[in-house]
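Tutorial sheet, problem 5. The two components below are modelled jointly, 260 residues in total.
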Amino acid sequence: MSFIEATKEVVWLRKLLGDLGYQQLIATPLYCDNQSAITLSQNPKYHSRMKHVEMQHHYIREIMAKGKVNVIYCAIENMVVDIMTKSLPKLKHVKSQQTLELI
Amino acid sequence: MFKLEMNKVVATPLEVGLKLTKAMSPEIENKKEHTKKVPYQSAIGNLIYYMICIRVDIAYSVGVVSQFFTYLKKTHWKVVRRIFRYLKGTSMSRVLYDGKRSANLVGFANADWARDFDSRKSTLGHCFSLVGGVVLVKQETNFHNTFINRSKIYVFY
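Model answer (structure tokens):
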């Protein structure tokens, strides 16, 4: 779900930036730390264990095939967007802020 | 307004491993009276204003504390005060959009399964940066109703 939500935002932002004159020429890198989610998004095979996932959530494959999103694995210790989902210790908090360029 | 002048500053908006629930430790009656007097909603309103403007690093913390409007205990108010102390200590930080940097979008997506201790709902977060500054952030602490007790991979995917 987090992936799909982010993909929808990518599609919208790319269109908006294109209209503003900042055409996105390369696929937008999207960093994620869950390897099974990445594998699932890259592999169009039928997974019997994923049958509870609704069809609409496979939209990410369509977008990846169009070359708009490039999903990249990011090791969990480098996963800076943890700042949005957890309470972090000081060092990690500062690192997240710097990498995400929040400050 | 929130009597925070004398407080020490802190480096992070939330304590590590903090568990906030609706039924925190039972409070005695006169302490309940105390929580009625605190400007909890007004404080969170202020925090949301900062969060939307520039301080997106407190998005998760604000998402957590804004779930307890009707189940307010002293513990929750302490957490809100801590966020203010954090903001006080980092009031000089700002977002810098540098026109010389590349205008390519970069995105980060993350999820946390069953983060909410009351409803077992999951947390989502993603953010995008452009020309060296954050442009879009989304943080949902209780992702919608169908999201309880589904598989972890579903939440991430």
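Marking note: Chain A has a mean pLDDT of 81. Full credit if you identified this.
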